[in-house]
Amino acid sequence: MTSKQINFFITPGDIPQIVAFFEKNHCLVFKGKVKNKTDDLNYDILTNPQKLIQVYLVNRDFKNTMNFGHLETINQYYIDIVHSSCIEFDIGGFYPYSDKVLHRSRFYYVSAYYDKETLVKKNDRFIHWAEGLIKDFKSEFLLKSGTPDKLLLSESCVHWIEEFHPELTTDGSKFILV
After folding, report:
1. Which of 136, 155, 159 lies closest to 6 in space, CA to CA?
2. Strands of 33-34's sheet, edge to edge?
3. Which residues are 52's β-sheet partners?
4. Hey, how many other C-beta atoms are within 10 angstroms of the C-beta on 30?
5. Integer CA distances (angstroms), 36 to 5, 21, 33, 58, in order
6. Residue 45, SS3 per DSSP
7. Domain residue spans in the chain?
8. What is the Cα–Cα distance from 132 to 23, expressed in whole angstroms?
9. pLDDT tens, 124-147?
10. What pLDDT is recorded for position 145?
11. pLDDT tens digits, one per residue of 24-46
12. Strands (E) located in 130-173
């Protein structure tokens, strides 16, 4: 399997601009799990009523290429990112159980996968769109920190760090207010 990802930190205050960016780039935001495949997959991360921490970005042109798996134990369908033309977006930020931990965000997508022993490359248009979306997102929202870790941070995250002086976890996945 061939995949790409980018890790970064944003704050909840960035979400309205990020939603506008997704809309400008013809992205649909999908929930990852539904009770049945005919459910409405569209999801509003601005209000995030279900407090999801992960959603999927789908270009309108690739909406019909989505593939689903089924979890029989809980009778839910999930987006199969390996076979679908989508980008996984871990929203990050503060999870509902704690306002003291800022979680890292992430974009991740699969560009090729194995079907038995044959490498199957995804549609060039999808790969071009995914790479362009991530490149444009980095350019519009992210700054490279001056720390040895060279973290990618939104401007509002830089201000939050300057104001609250959180500690970065050893694995670099969270900032914790102490």
Report:
1. 136
2. 33-34, 76-79, 68-71
3. none
4. 20
5. 29, 29, 9, 19
6. coil
7. 2-176
8. 15
9. 999 999 999 999 999 999 999 876
10. 84
11. 999 999 999 888 877 778 899 99
12. 142-144, 152-154, 167-168
